Amino acid sequence: MSWSQERPDFETLIVKEWHLDHYEMGGQKLPAPAGHEKDTMVFYANHKTDSVSGTTTEHGVWSYDKVEGVLTVKDADNGILLTFQVQSISVTSCVLHIQSPEGASMVLYMVAKG
């Protein structure tokens, strides 16, 4: 049984405000990039999302495939689609893996704000 099938409460856990604690790239753990320490990602129960970076807010929609354990976020303005493999989620933390079309891999370690 996969993690996603064991955690049917994903849609309840993801609905909150998250910020990037650190990320991992090429096996190296790195802090949030300078100037992005306070960036947040907010997931709402109506499947809308806001990504806040500095004074810029991008709006979008999210969906979750519990069979595949995949979180998808689509930007409302430009239609860009981001696909994350959910590695784990709890009330206070969320770990997401994303791979670029070029093959670069990154793991995001997010913590619940508040």
How are the SSEs ordered, and which strands pair?
Layout lengths: L2 H4 L3 H4 L3 E9 L2 E4 L8 E4 L4 E6 L2 E10 L4 E6 L5 E9 L3 E7 L5 E8 L2
Antiparallel strand pairs: 1-2, 1-3, 1-9, 3-4, 4-5, 5-6, 6-7, 7-8, 8-9
Written overview of the protein:
The protein has 114 residues and is mainly beta. Helix content is 7%, strand content 55%. It has helices at 3-6, 10-13, and strands at residues 17-25, 28-31, 40-43, 48-53, 56-65, 70-75, 81-89, 93-99, 105-112. The protein has an 8-stranded antiparallel barrel. The protein is globular, with a radius of gyration of 14 Å. Mean pLDDT is 89; it is low at 1-5.
Q: Structural class given helices, strands, pairing?
A: mainly beta
Kindly estimate the percentage of residues that lie in beta strands according to DSSP: over 45%
N-to-C SSE series?
HHEEEEEEEEE
Task: Summarize the biggest pleated sheet.
Answer: 8 strands, antiparallel, barrel
Count of DSSP helices? 2
Overall strand count = 9
Q: Could you report the average pLDDT, rounded to the nearest whole number?
A: 89
Estimate percent helicity: under 10%
State Rg.
14 Å
How far apart are the first and last residues' alpha carbons, in Å? 32 Å
Summarize the structure.
The chain has 114 residues and is mainly beta. Helix content is 7%, strand content 55%.
Short descriptors:
disordered N terminus; 2 helices; 9 strands; 114 residues
